[in-house]
Write a structure and sequence with these properties.
mainly alpha; 1 helix; 97 residues
Length: 97
């Protein structure tokens, strides 16, 4: 322990202990605050990364859906254009009584 000089040049045993406890308390509080801050920063980074992945997946899914929709609509239009004309219906016969 490190003692401090009190007035009149005498060393006080209590002053050094008090200072050590106060410094230790401050250091402990600062260390806890730093740790809490680092955890919050890490959590924020993880959230940002997860959100970026979510947005990227969503964009990819939307692009794929749009592409497949366009292909389906093009195929349906082509099928309608190439479809044979509907055969003419024969007139219904009258039933005999």
């Amino acid at each position: 322990m490190k003692g401090r000089l009190c007035y009149k040049g005498r060393k006080s045993h209590f002053t050094g202990l008090d200072t050590l406890l106060v410094e230790n308390s401050r250091d402990t509080a600062r260390a806890r605050a730093d740790l809490r801050f680092k955890k919050q920063e890490e959590a924020a980074t993880v959230r940002q990364k997860a959100m970026a992945e979510y947005v990227a997946e969503s964009d990819a899914r939307k692009a794929k859906t749009d592409k497949l929709r366009a292909l389906r609509l093009a195929k349906e239009a082509e099928d309608l254009a190439n479809a044979p004309a509907a055969p003419a219906k024969k007139p219904a016969r009258a039933k005999k009584k």
